Amino acid sequence: MDAHASDAGLPEVxxxxxxxxxxxxxxxxxxxxxxxxxTDGNFDRALALYFEQAPASHSxxxxxxxxxxxxxxxxxxxxxxxxxVSQHRGPRGGSLLGRLLQLPMAALRGGAGLLFGALSLxxxxxxxxxxxxxxxxxxxxxxxxxxxxxxxxxxADPAAAAAAFSREFSxxxxxxxxxxxxxxxxxxxxxxxxxxxxxxxxxHAPNHQDTVRFCTETLCEPELVAFLNAQFVCxxxxxxxxxxxxxxxxxxxTGYPFVALLAFSGxxxxxxxxxxxxIAPGTLCAALKRASxxxxxxxxxxxxxxxxxxxxxxxxxxxxxxxxxxxxxxxxRERHREAQRQAAEAAEAAAEQAVAAxxxxxxxxxxxxxxAAAAAAARKAAAAAAVAPEPPPGTPSGAAIRVxxxxxxxxxxxxxxxxxxxxxxxxxxxxxxxxxxxxxxxxSSFPRVxxxxxxxxxxxxAHGLAPQAVLLVQPRDT
Length: 478
Prior knowledge:
alpha+beta, 9 strands, 13% strand, 14 helices
């Protein structure tokens, strides 16, 4: 922390901010402390305020020739000239006194932004000296004014501020003008970087004495406008807006009208040309052409590198796409082969199952046929066993029964007239060449009678089949 700040009751300032300020502004540490305290630690405002207040010898040398200043009526005293050199600045107290003497003219030159710096500087002096020189109510009032001014200097949307500047510029100076980007300067810088172009910057100070003439005679000159719109990305901003105010501090703009040409390499932004003050359009155009020619090689090289990277990226993407397509084709072929293999295995399994099922069916049919044959043989044997012995010839009340099979074969046997027709049916079932007894019936030819069911229990005589008769073996499926 800063020892001076704690002794005077001012806001504390971090030493790293002081070191950063010294590295950028190339000023003594006590002045870095002073400006950081004067702006309540706001680094951008402190830096801008320093360059607004610093003598012209401390600003960066312009790369474009500025318009020669009008001759002064009186010569500057040597002592004053000596006091303007940066390496011979006096101690802290002398610097504060020099700032106080410069405030009236600085406020007239700088407009609203400089007025803010002057009030901030006054508030800082009040804080530094108030304990000894000012009553407490006056000190509090000065600090309140500083806070009010700082609150009024709020951040604005960079895009809205750029669009408002473009509209106001067109309203005042016409439509023959540079094609301003309606975005913050950093977004405009990204656009220029993406397009491999320089960024042409114009910082507009509307209250400056040379602004109207510069905009009318130089910035809106048709040939220069055509050159700017064709070659560069153009951005303009009113220094009263926060975005343009910070950029003015970064570019160390100490005079207006101010134009600059910015180039970009990777993540770095370089100032390749600048001009402060009014300048003729031909001179500005020639200087911009010279600067773009001198520094355009880096843009060409970066563009070539970008194209090479883009070509390599597209080549990799095409190779990756071709590899993915080949991989997908291989996967599809593998999937197709797997599907064919599975289909073949399924067909083989189905065929095996069909063969097994047919074999099982054949075996079952064979078993059923064997069982049926065995059952038929058993029934035939049972039927043969159930047949009573044949009565001897000449037995009274006998009945000679002849049966005719479907193939024309006939058989004859004697029965008792009192025997039920079932005994004839059992005898027929025991004959060779006759199937299962359940598959046929006995029938008389004339009159046509089929004997089934209870009729088999009736005697032969009752059916009129004694003393002799012919019966037909009739299959039941016919």
